[in-house]
Specification:
By secondary structure, the protein is an all-beta fold. The chain has one domain. It has 1 helix and 15 strands, in the order αβββββββββββββββ. The strands form 2 sheets. Strands 1, 2, 3, 4, 5, 6, 7, 8, 9, 10, 11, 12 and 13 form a 13-stranded parallel sheet that branches. Strand 14 and strand 15 form a beta hairpin. The radius of gyration is 15 Å and the shape is globular. 23% of the residues are buried.
Length: 136
């Protein structure tokens, strides 16, 4: 009568993962679905989708992502294949590599920034280990 099989992976796409305020994660996150962070991540984040760092969200580490909206705080290196939106209350410190950048007045943007029109492949190098993530 009821099919209790888990949903196929393709059904999960289009849904958003969420880490709420007051949650602290120490470690790396890899996701293929959209992600909203209102808590704190001490580690790296990789996604082929969109990341939203909410007003109370904090990331200390590296980000590789297709699109990113930042309202909270980010410290580290960020690589965005398409658009990085920095909201008015955001605080960015570190290094930014992006295809397109939007910074609202009032944002704290203290970072080196390189803009590249066609970012097809982003690389994350971790010592001897190199992983290539193609983000389209």
């Amino acid at each position: 009568m009821f099919d209790k099989k888990s949903k196929p992976y393709t059904d999960v796409l289009g849904k958003t993962n969420r880490i709420v305020e007051g949650t602290i994660i120490k470690g790396d996150i890899v996701s293929q679905a959209d992600f909203r962070l209102d808590g704190e991540l001490i580690g790296n984040f990789e996604s082929t989708a969109k990341l939203v760092i909410g007003p109370s969200g904090i990331i200390t580490g590296d980000i590789i992502c297709k699109n990113v909206d930042i309202e909270g705080t980010f410290r580290g290196k960020i690589q965005v294949a398409e658009i990085l939106n920095v909201k008015s209350k955001a605080k960015i410190h570190g290094e930014v590599i992006v295809a397109k950048l939007s910074v609202e007045p009032g944002a704290e943007f203290s970072a080196s920034c390189v803009m590249k029109q066609n970012i097809e492949k982003l690389m994350l190098t971790d010592g001897e280990k190199t992983s290539k993530k193609e983000i389209k």
